[in-house]
Amino acid sequence: MSQNSTSAGALGRHPTRLVRIGRVQVGSQVPIVVQSMTNTDTADHVATAIQIAQLARAGSELVRITVNNDESAKAVPKIVEQLAKMNVEVPIIGDFHYNGHKLLTDNPACAELLAKYRINPGNVGQGQKRDAQFAQIVELACKYDKPVRIGVNWGSLDQAVLARMMDANAQRAEPWDVGAVMREALIVSALESAQAAEDVGMAGDRIILSCKVSSVQDLIATYRELARRCDYPLHLGLTEAGMGSKGIVASTAALGVLLQEGIGDTIRVSLTPEPGGARTQEVIVAQEILQSMGLRAFTPMVTACPGCGRTTSTFFQELAQSVQSYVREQMPVWRDQYDGVENLTLAVMGCVVNGPGESKHANIGISLPGTGETPAAPVFIDGQKAMTLRGDNIAHEFRAILDEYVATKYPKKIQ
């Protein structure tokens, strides 16, 4: 999967260093990277490899897995082997809490095959053990030439740092409110941990930072200040964003503001899947945030009207859904065969009011008849009326037009 983008993807960003994670680069000089995380038991290497493959094929450029015990650490080589059999190549990140120093030491194959380590400064130990165990993970990262994400989290904040911030706040003539102190503690924990990693010997261009919270306004405030105070690449995302529309809206609101301000180099949308829902939804939402903002292009997007009293038929809704699903199914094939197909625009409109106009603005558009209109559907290609579809086979004919357009308009990649 290439790190392609529209021109806006690498412009207007808060300047940060460039970090390599396997074959993927993260930093302000390159397009913003989409990542995700599995929710399988990592020890089940087959199920985990299958889900990694699903996430990668959906467009996740980095995939994180939980490494929480010896069984999961020993499964990493098997997961990598299974992915190779499936012809899936994506950098895998190990997520460590509490015992990462021991797991990486005891399982050198795991340490070598992971593309990056995620360290939570609040969960590496207490007191003197904390510093020693943090240093041990960093030393192993240096030994195996792996970058790290120092990921501070609101729910597991280093209590020593928080206590220090609270004590300092009590000495202020005008103390900050509790939320401001917590945000400052998150930032200080991230920056002090990054400096500690560099003191151990890690290069500054091997470190990514994150400060995750579950509140939209707190996330925006925290990252604005974090970006002001460092040039490490920043990983964005609400922690525990939630389920369904709540998680999507909250993530979009928070990330949209920060991305518009040029803050953020890699993102994850931490959605709670609906029961039986696909894990890949978080990848699609992350892509659509970036694509809607004009920062990346991943897959052709379908413009469709919301419907009104002129569109009592549901056919235009069904066609829009069918076309969007078809495009997503075809993208893995198209992406490998054609250059630039992700920039294709489509429109499926439901009546004469905005139908022809919106259809002309898209590469391919169809204006379906509304209530009382002539039962004909003009199709526009690159702004010009190309044909009119009628009858019961419109959906199939429109997909055939789409296939032909892709095959003839986009140059084939050299294999």
From TrEMBL:
- What EC number(s) would the UniProt record show? 1.17.7.3
NCBIfam families documented for this protein: ispG_gcpE, PRK00366.1
Q: Name one GO molecular function term.
A: 4-hydroxy-3-methylbut-2-en-1-yl diphosphate synthase activity (ferredoxin)
Q: What is this protein called?
A: 4-hydroxy-3-methylbut-2-en-1-yl diphosphate synthase (flavodoxin)
Reactions catalysed, as given in the entry:
(2E)-4-hydroxy-3-methylbut-2-enyl diphosphate + oxidized [flavodoxin] + H2O + 2 H(+) = 2-C-methyl-D-erythritol 2,4-cyclic diphosphate + reduced [flavodoxin]
Q: Describe the function of this protein.
A: Converts 2C-methyl-D-erythritol 2,4-cyclodiphosphate (ME-2,4cPP) into 1-hydroxy-2-methyl-2-(E)-butenyl 4-diphosphate.
Pathway, per Swiss-Prot/TrEMBL? Isoprenoid biosynthesis; isopentenyl diphosphate biosynthesis via DXP pathway; isopentenyl diphosphate from 1-deoxy-D-xylulose 5-phosphate: step 5/6
| InterPro entries named in the record | Dihydropteroate_synth-like_sf, IspG_bac, IspG_bac-typ, IspG_C, IspG_TIM, NO2/SO3_Rdtase_4Fe4S_sf
Enumerate the Pfam families for this protein.
GcpE (PF04551), GcpE_C (PF26540)
* EC class of the enzyme, as a word: oxidoreductase
Domain (IspG TIM-barrel): residue spans on this chain: 16-286
Q: Which residues bind [4Fe-4S] cluster?
A: 305, 308, 351, 358
Native source species: Uliginosibacterium aquaticum
Give the highest taxon in the source lineage.
Bacteria
Q: Which family does it belong to?
A: Belongs to the IspG family.
Q: Which gene encodes it?
A: ispG
IspG C-terminal domain boundaries: 302-403
Q: Which UniProt keywords apply?
A: 4Fe-4S, Iron, Iron-sulfur, Isoprene biosynthesis, Metal-binding, Oxidoreductase
In terms of Gene3D superfamilies, this protein maps to: Dihydropteroate synthase-like, Sulfite Reductase Hemoprotein, domain 1
| Cofactor(s) for this UniProt protein | [4Fe-4S] cluster
Q: How is the cofactor bound?
A: Binds 1 [4Fe-4S] cluster.
